[in-house]
């Protein structure tokens, strides 16, 4: 059974409305970042850059104090060669003194330093140092901001990152550290080959009985890799009629020294030699020149790659170095001859993946090309000649398949989206072994290390194993890679000190256990991390109770449910135990035990386990500590705050400047503009003076001024302009308000006339309908109306005398307020409920007698009779 069931959708619809959080998928390449956001708010696609590009250059840079990203950052390398940071994927968890770092130095113009963790930091020209994790985190945060902008500001915290299957645990840690520094959470890491496979499987269906084998061949900037996968339709559950697509990884192969970047480097070598020969100078000594040449090499390579018929391309760099405008021509033949030795290395990963899986080219249906460097004709022809033209497939998007597959993988993991089910069974790439010191037989014996491979390369991720040790005393186990993973990289992963053993064993023994043991559970997670999950002391104790005996009879013993056991006996076989002597045995016991119980065979036992203390010490390249990550996060947050403050200041500056120009236009306009009509000469003069003064100030001191000062300068001018604006608004508003006032005046008068008539009628004629209102009510309204009229007449006359460029004596707001009073009183009467009928027996409409409204009631249903 697969541990990981990945359900995938083509259109995403959400399952749970309340808990939905959007998900960000990132394919962080050495040259390009591709990202995708999964949310019901936006169509499922790759995330666009600010200028609508579908991929984002993996560069962060500083132009003096301004931080730049993507192509803006990449493009300034020629001017700021030590402040533009690219190809950082090479440096994730790279030990400072490793060949990887030497290689990085050969392709980069930046300055590098060693961190306290033995990894790499980069140094800006201002002297500040930034760890690789921090620089990568900045880019993750940049991508997150793009995603949040696409989602109208909704927060994004969950991330899936596609990583190469060859990434070691240290490198995976570095990715997760960067995600955390960026203030996000890693939902999962997914191997990029598997992500491409998910993308491939999305729109296809597969046979039920026969797996179909394909190789995902990915040539990226920093490496070439091959992932051998099979696709097959399998029932969702045994005997189910619903089918899921099973994606199984069978093998991987890779070469971490060839890829697009190495091709760029080779091309640049051609240009360097050419330049140095032509001008008798050493361009290598010039950082700017080298950075410019690097960019040009990438451009020339792209031209030679874009068109198979492009036999040559011009290289051209203005003022490359030493004031020289460099021009040259690179032929495809030159380029290919420079790279001749790489040809076998482009295809070896394919053979390695086949070997790993124990298959041959004949078993493979197609080799699916992905990754930007597969566009290079040299690489394509190498792959073609290795597997045959007919097997080459271009049926996934070379740039986007990994991120889109990764997004769907993550969407399914988060269980928030509806599904086409795809199950992924991935594997680990390197042998992982457990090492520990053998228990010394006597004082004189030399300490001896025993190594046992627990997760051989090709083990399914998302599995665990329980190791059994016959130990009496506390000891430590170490998890490490059996062989070299990357030259110069450490092989140790972690050490787990297990303590409390003697006490726990004594306890179990005392309770009747015979030969209790220590069991440690090691886990290989879905994201490819190994860890020691826990350790226990364990012993079987005869259960003499009735329940125990019954259990035994029905075979319900707990011990038969033991999951996976790999035994390493240090006492019984310590003599024979060579470094690898027990591997095959361990492997043999890898299989899950049969779930069928074996009743009556074993004596009744009661399992007893006592948890032991496990203290984990980290490897020589440890992941960042919580404190280190917090410090980095604070550092990044400080930059964000600074940049936000800077943006606010720029906005205040621009807004002031814009305001000044607008005001100057207003003042300069001699025609009868509303502004002119509503302002007086002396006011305009005051504004002119203030305007020129502010212009001057902005020019002299504006750049250094703080945001509040910039804002106050604008406010000062606005306060001069405000009365003019107000007059103009009143010119617009007053007639409307007056009209409304007159309307209420008029309708109140109408109402009163009619109501008076009704009242009079009802008083005169006992058969007439009773009046709804009393005399007092009507008198009250009449009074208010007269007051309103008097006020209105008086003030409207006054206002009529006021000139347009003078402040009004009667504000439209006051007009409205007075009218509102009248309106309210009128409405109160209009809305008044008709008088209630009297319930007195024999009462009729003739009851209306007095002038008091309370008494004049209309019988219910009168209107209907
Ligand atoms: C691979 O091909 C060989 C020979 O063509 C065949 O014998 C073998 O069964 C195939 N293996 C699989 C897994 O299909
Ligand atoms: C053994 O440990 C259990 C708890 O883990 C404790 O309750 C018990 O008293 C211990 N027995 C002895 C004999 O120490
Ligand atoms: C006054 O208001 C009425 C009704 O809203 C409208 O028909 C009339 O045109 C208005 N007159 C003026 C001068 O605004
Ligand atoms: C109020 O309305 C009355 C009657 O319609 C009219 O005679 C009077 O002039 C109006 N007063 C004002 C200020 O509009
Ligand atoms: C006056 O009486 C008529 C007839 O009963 C009624 O429709 C109208 O609403 C009354 N008017 C007022 C202002 O009360």
TrEMBL record:
Residues 577-586, 840-853 have a biased composition (Low complexity). Residues 1-21 form the signal peptide. The gene is LHS1. The keyword Nucleotide-binding applies. InterPro entries: ATPase_NBD (IPR043129), HSP70_C_sf (IPR029048), HSP70_peptide-bd_sf (IPR029047), Hsp_70_fam (IPR013126). This is Lumenal Hsp70 protein. It comes from Steccherinum ochraceum. GO terms for cellular component: endoplasmic reticulum chaperone complex. The lineage of its organism: Eukaryota, Fungi, Dikarya, Basidiomycota, Agaricomycotina. Residues 553-608, 825-865 are annotated as: Disordered. Keywords: ATP-binding, Chaperone, Endoplasmic reticulum, Nucleotide-binding, Signal. SUPFAM superfamilies: Actin-like ATPase domain (SSF53067), Heat shock protein 70kD (HSP70), C-terminal subdomain (SSF100934). GO terms for molecular function: ATP binding; ATP-dependent protein folding chaperone. GO terms for biological process: endoplasmic reticulum unfolded protein response. The keyword Nucleotide-binding applies. It comes from the Eukaryota.
């Amino acid at each position: 059974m697969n541990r990981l069931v990945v359900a995938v959708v083509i259109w995403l619809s959400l399952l749970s409305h309340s808990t939905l959080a959007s998900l960000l998928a990132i394919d962080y390449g050495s040259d390009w970042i591709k990202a995708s956001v999964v949310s019901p708010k936006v169509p499922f696609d790759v995330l666009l850059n600010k200028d609508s590009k579908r991929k984002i250059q993996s560069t962060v840079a500083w132009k003096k104090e301004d931080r730049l990203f993507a192509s803006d950052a990449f493009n300034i390398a020629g001017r700021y060669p030590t402040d533009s940071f690219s190809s950082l994927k090479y440096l994730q968890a790279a030990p400072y003194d490793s060949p990887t770092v030497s290689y990085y130095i050969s392709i980069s113009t930046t300055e590098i330093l060693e961190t306290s963790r033995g990894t790499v930091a980069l140094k800006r020209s201002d002297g500040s140092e930034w760890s690789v994790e921090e620089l990568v985190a900045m880019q993750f945060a940049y991508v997150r901001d793009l995603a949040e902008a696409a989602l109208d500001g909704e927060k994004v915290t969950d991330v899936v990152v596609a990583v190469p299957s060859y990434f070691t645990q240290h490198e995976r840690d570095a990715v997760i550290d960067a995600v955390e520094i960026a203030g996000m959470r890693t939902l999962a890491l997914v191997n990029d080959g598997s992500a491409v496979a998910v993308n491939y499987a999305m729109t296809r269906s597969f046979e039920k009985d026969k797996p179909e084998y394909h190789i995902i061949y990915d040539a990226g900037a920093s490496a070439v890799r091959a992932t051998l996968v099979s696709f097959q339709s399998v029932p969702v559950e045994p005997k189910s009629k619903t089918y899921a697509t099973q994606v199984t990884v069978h093998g991987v192969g890779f070469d971490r020294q060839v890829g697009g970047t190495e091709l760029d480097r080779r091309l640049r070598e051609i240009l360097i030699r050419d330049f140095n020969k032509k001008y008798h100078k050493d361009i290598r000594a010039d950082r700017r020149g080298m950075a410019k040449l690097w960019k040009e090499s990438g451009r020339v390579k792209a031209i030679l790659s874009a068109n198979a018929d492009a036999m040559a391309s011009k290289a051209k760099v203005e003022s490359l170095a030493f004031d020289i405008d460099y021009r040259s021509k690179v032929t495809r033949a030159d380029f290919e001859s420079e790279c001749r030795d790489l040809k076998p290395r482009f295809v070896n990963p394919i053979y390695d993946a086949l070997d790993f899986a124990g298959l041959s080219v004949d078993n493979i249906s197609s080799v699916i090309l992905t990754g930007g460097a597969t566009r290079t004709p040299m690489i394509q022809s190498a792959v073609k000649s290795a597997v045959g033209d007919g097997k080459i497939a271009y049926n996934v998007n070379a740039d986007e398949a990994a991120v889109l597959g990764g997004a769907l993988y993550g969407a399914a993991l988060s269980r928030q989206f509806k599904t086409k089910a795809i199950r992924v069974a991935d594997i680990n790439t390197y042998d992982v072994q457990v090492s520990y010191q053998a228990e010394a037989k006597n004082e004189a014996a030399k300490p001896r290390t025993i190594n046992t491979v627990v997760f051989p390369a090709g083990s399914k991720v998302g599995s665990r194993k329980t190791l059994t040790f016959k130990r009496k005393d506390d000891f430590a186990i170490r998890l490490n890679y059996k062989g070299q993973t990357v030259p110069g990289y450490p092989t140790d992963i972690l050490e787990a000190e297990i303590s409390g053993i003697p006490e726990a064993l004594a306890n179990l023994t005392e309770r009747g256990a015979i030969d209790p043991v220590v069991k440690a559970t090691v886990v290989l997670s879905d994201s490819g991390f190994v860890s020691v999950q826990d350790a226990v002391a364990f012993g079987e104790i005869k259960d003499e109770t009735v329940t125990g005996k019954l259990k035994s009879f029905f075979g319900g013993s707990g011990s038969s449910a033991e999951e996976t056991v790999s035994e390493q006996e240090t006492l019984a076989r310590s003599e024979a135990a060579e470094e690898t002597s027990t591997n095959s045995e361990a492997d043999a016991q890898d299989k899950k035990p049969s779930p069928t119980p074996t009743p009556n065979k074993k004596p009744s036992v009661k399992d007893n386990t006592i948890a032991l203390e496990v203290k984990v010490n980290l490897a020589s390249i440890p992941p960042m500590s919580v404190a280190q990550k917090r410090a980095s996060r604070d550092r990044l947050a400080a930059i964000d705050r600074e940049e936000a403050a800077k943006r606010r200041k720029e906005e205040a500056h621009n807004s002031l400047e814009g305001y000044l120009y607008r005001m100057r236009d207003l003042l300069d306009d001699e025609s009868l503009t509303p502004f002119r009509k509503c302002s007086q000469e002396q006011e305009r003069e005051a504004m002119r003076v203030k305007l020129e003064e502010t212009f001057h100030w902005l020019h002299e001191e504006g750049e250094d001024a703080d945001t509040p000062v910039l804002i106050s300068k604008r406010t000062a001018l606005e306060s001069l302009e405000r009365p003019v604006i107000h007059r103009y608004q009143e010119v617009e508003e007053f007639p409307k308000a007056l009209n409304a006032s007159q309307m209420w005046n008029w309708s109140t008068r109408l109402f009163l006339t009619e109501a008076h008539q009704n009242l009079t009628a009802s008083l005169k004629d006992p058969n007439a309908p009773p009046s709804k209102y009393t005399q007092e009510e009507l008198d009250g309204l009449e009074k208010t109306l007269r007051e309103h009229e008097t006020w209105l007449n008086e003030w409207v006359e006054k206002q009529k005398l006021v000139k347009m460029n003078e402040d009004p004596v009667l504000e439209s707001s006051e007009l409205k307020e007075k009218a509102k009073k009248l309106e309210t009183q009128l409405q109160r009467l209009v809305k008044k409920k008709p008088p209630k009928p009297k319930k007195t027996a024999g009462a009729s409409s003739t009851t209306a007698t007095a002038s008091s409204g309370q008494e004049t009631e209309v019988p219910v249903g009168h209107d209907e009779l």
